[in-house]
Amino acid sequence: MSPRSGDVLRVTRTASAQFAEPILFRVIRAHDWPTYRGWIWLDGYQLNAAGDAVDRRSIFVRLDGLGKVSNATTVPSRGRTVARPPVSTRPQPVTTRPSPRPIGATTGRTTAGAAAVGSGRSGI
């Protein structure tokens, strides 16, 4: 068995002594580097029980110590169901905004008061 990109593997102590505690591993790349017969360098992600990547690793393992795991058992569906209102097919009325009022219009200020405020002098 030669691991391929996307494969989820169970890596145990049989693959290498460092894996006394088995891990789940999603393969990114299987290197074709020359190694001992039956051994391989793999790049990938260590997965937690929920199938989420928790660490990126490069591992040197024996091929006969790797077990392929079904993706359905390790990677839960990430799709969420979101309730959305139905989309209306009829056109919606266009609402217009009222035009802005000119400066000083209907503000209650007198022209003299506005000039006094603008010049920094008091109208009193």
Automatic annotation (TrEMBL):
Residues 72-124 are annotated as: Disordered. It comes from the Bacteria. Residues 89-98 have a biased composition (Polar residues). Residues 104-124 have a biased composition (Low complexity). This is Uncharacterized protein.
